[in-house]
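Take a careful look at the protein record below. Let me know whether the structure tokens fit the sequence:
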Amino acid sequence: AVFVHPRAMGQNPDPSLVRQSTGELLRLARDAGVSKAVVMSALNVDHPLDQQPSRLRGEYNKEVEAATEESGLPWTAIRPGWFATNAISSWGAQIRHGDVVRSAYGDAAWAPLHERDIAAVAAHALLHDDLIGRKPVLTGPEVMTQGEMIDVIGKAIGRPLRFEEVPHEAAREAMARGGLPVPLIDAFLTLQAASYLQAGLISDATENILGRPGLTFSQWATERAAAFAA
């Protein structure tokens, strides 16, 4: 079996060429005897393109998923939502340097997903055939706002943290000062404001596939506490 990750398919500015190269990879894989493809996609792959900020990092989930479906190989497309590890890149620097975390859209809510659960579902799809032809949407087991996640991180590191909501423009300017490209910032803030456009937010696919509840954000924060150490 082959695991197909959009980031490994190249960061060509032309998405159609990424789709073409993915198809070529899978043709070579099929000719070499590979009998199954599992592709890493995303929960928001069918949302408007301006609400898929990962595309601005060269991760063309939509095109790579489509090429995998068209490959002629039995396939599974894994569609994870908000990775818990995003908390490190989003808030890690602020937490390491103080007790207040500032961000826009305090009521934005996600169901943070432990990366070990993503890996476990991918391994299951590679080793078994029950997910062939399916596109399971993966989320964590609980809906949390930014403030709630930051409270959990505070408990994990033994230091009370406080969330402070800031206006959209203030967040945009701060992220730009941090070196992020403006198109990526705008796409992320648009997505954040819409809370992933996902009704209900929680999917039961993770639990159904793994036969156990998904790992909680509290478990994740405890395991990754060192990333937030002062």
Summary: The beta strands are 2-4, 37-40, 75-80, 100-103, 109-110, 137-138, 144-145, 162-165. The domain at 83-113+140-198+213-230 is CATH 3.40.50.720 (Rossmann fold). The first helix runs from residue 15 to 31.
